[in-house]
């Protein structure tokens, strides 16, 4: 190993990741940094939250994929990795941290540190990276800056931070206004600086410059993948040692241990949001390389005469799984141009595995279905939503927890659930979590009429939790959860207290039938919807399933009558989104997903067959 005196640094580069809880302002801060470093022309039309580039990110208002950009400031190139704040996309966070030398931790001046803040900070401290704390949204009228800083120090101590890591600089910012300051403003006040200069200065002083060994051969770590219709697969690499040139022969060290000589056909460096062609890239650079069609995340590009592979990127194990297969309903393939065959679905899942390191696909007994494992419900729902927008038709089973055996006993994943609710809903929420085998850790009353509760809950207890939680708190509650660890199996958790209304024949839903059925429960389909036997058309107010004829027409007589009265008194149906449908499903139900619709159905469509199956299960249990 070389001594410290033999190592060199590149003082013209800083590599930094911006990490935070969901909606604390990461992407908005990156926007402001890009504008203030003159990354865009004076007349350029740039969207707000420019880093959230795909449609799903813009619709949901969250970052799903880690992305990199670069800003030039006073002769310094700052490579910025914008990471997701949601723990379900933790694989993206871990990849982002492997590319950088320091972290900017963003915390909301009112909400303070939340479960995902704990998650991203724990990963940062494990990687021994220096931290800059940015208290964002200081201009919020309900800001409580001093208390939030104290909570951040407590979090660092709780996560066993070293003395050097706790000595972090603090910046006070309003990312939306593009202002930051080293001086603490009044709660709800603006930072005293007119721009983000204090933040740029602290990044330059706190984040170490990339260190490399001038005598070492080339080592570049593949941390992300992209694709281009012209260039094919593009590998994003952090270069640790040596230089890489366009047209150069390199050793491709694959994750299976094999080494192959390949040629770098194209080389790019990032400037603002553009990839600019470059002749060479050196230590500390984050470069995009084309020419290697099957390269994977975690591979290393090295010197052909002295290949030294870097360690593979490891991510946390998946906690939630669901079965995903081809659409087997009687009305599949009705949408023009949809992809319905098992081969197409399997190819798409294999492509997803290339860029998504935190996902696993396990074969099942059926050739047209696979078990997909991920960090959480949201990550799996995003995959299904992306596939349906690409034209795939799927059948998706209810999510379940991934268990493991430790010392001969079954253990299950447990989540740390943080809930902010008005005081009047405290009892309802506590009771709701207790039924799901959750146990309370802390309860904090900020004196504002709101209470923060922290629970440890089995992951399977949180399946379907969000919809019920929002109903109980009249839409006012805020809940976030993050994977905590494995604990012994907590026992049986009671599922949904209501049953389903199941169509007993094919046809079109009629207004007459729906008008008579709506007193039995709430309906999920509007009049005229095509239904089939076994399709779930509503929620029964009782705890058992009910087979109903939703296609029944009114008896025709020779007396003219208007059905206008029935239409006027028909309660509007509850149209469920994909996430809500997955949460609603019971054990024997699944979701049918097509590009134009989301339907729920029984796994076994035939009513008689379902009755026989129920009888067999009850006999086995007795």
Layout of helices and strands, plus pairs?
Elements: E1 8-9, E2 13-20, H1 26-36, H2 55-60, E3 67-73, E4 76-82, H3 90-97, E5 102-108, H4 115-126, E6 131-136, H5 145-158, H6 163-166, E7 170-174, E8 179-181, H7 197-206, E9 211-212, E10 219-228, E11 232-241, E12 244-245, E13 249-253, E14 259-263, E15 266-271, E16 274-277, E17 280-281, E18 286-290, E19 300-302, E20 320-326, H8 342-355, E21 360-363, E22 369-374, H9 377-389, E23 394-397, E24 400-401, E25 404-406, E26 409-422, H10 426-435, E27 439-445, E28 450-458, H11 465-472, E29 478-488, E30 500-503, E31 507-508, H12 511-517, E32 521-523, E33 530-531, E34 535-540, E35 546-548, H13 564-569, H14 578-584, E36 589-593, E37 598-602, H15 607-621
Parallel strand pairs: 2-4, 2-5, 5-6, 6-7, 30-35
Antiparallel strand pairs: 1-9, 3-4, 7-8, 10-11, 10-19, 11-18, 12-17, 13-14, 13-19, 15-16, 15-18, 20-22, 20-23, 20-24, 21-22, 23-36, 25-26, 26-28, 26-29, 27-28, 30-34, 31-33, 32-34, 34-37, 36-37
Helix pairs in contact: 3-4
Features:
622 residues, 23% helix, globular, disordered N terminus
Structural summary, described in words:
Helix content is 23%, strand content 32%. The chain has 15 helices and 37 strands. The strands form seven sheets. Strands 20, 21, 22, 23, 24, 30, 32, 34, 35, 36 and 37 form an eleven-stranded mixed β-sheet that branches. It has an eight-stranded antiparallel β-sheet with strand order 14-13-19-10-11-18-15-16, with no helix packed on it. Strands 3-4-2-5-6-7-8 form a seven-stranded mixed β-sheet, sandwiched between helices. It is of the alpha+beta class.
